[in-house]
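Notes from the 1:1 (GR / supervisor)

We went over the backlog. Supervisor wanted to see one worked example end to end before approving the batch request, so GR pasted a single chain during the call. The sequence is below; no edits were made to it. Supervisor asked that the structure be written out right there so they could see what the output format looks like.
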Amino acid sequence: MSTLKDYIDFYSSTGSKDLLISYKGPFLEDILSKLSEIIRETFTGDPVLSRKLLAVFIEMAQNVYFYSSETIDVGEKSFGIGSVMVVSNETNYTFRTGNYVPLDYVEELAASCQLVNSLDREGLRQLKRDVRTTKPGERSKGAGIGLIQIALTAAQPIEYEYTQVDEKNAFFSLGININK
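Structure output shown during the call:
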């Protein structure tokens, strides 16, 4: 169980003036809708930036919603559990998500991130076309184009890291920067 000191350390490390959104828990549709609304309202002065931020948020949130190995059942639906954070600094906004994924999926996910990061914009567009015409894999809920779309929208490499947490799961974190 976390201590008050752990929480204070987390709160202090995020730099409260730079932290725009922080959420950990089930990625319920109502919660995602409210967070999307906050993003739209926060950036109404810059509609292009607002659309970019919203698109990246939705793609990253869907990764947690669909692929988290930690879930909660609400009614007849199962929802992924994870975290999302949006931080602002002088030059960009950083989105970061984190959630548990099955250990046997980690290498595949890391390889997908490496592939996306190795391609230029035209290569990403071609990969997206190719993925759309192939049958989705066993784990995929949307033909696997989410990571590609994140990279296209942000025009930045995807940051990722993971660590094994037990014999079945790893904690996987994705991050992306969007220029201001």
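Supervisor's comment: The CA atoms of residues 158 and 176 lie 5 Å apart.
Batch request approved.
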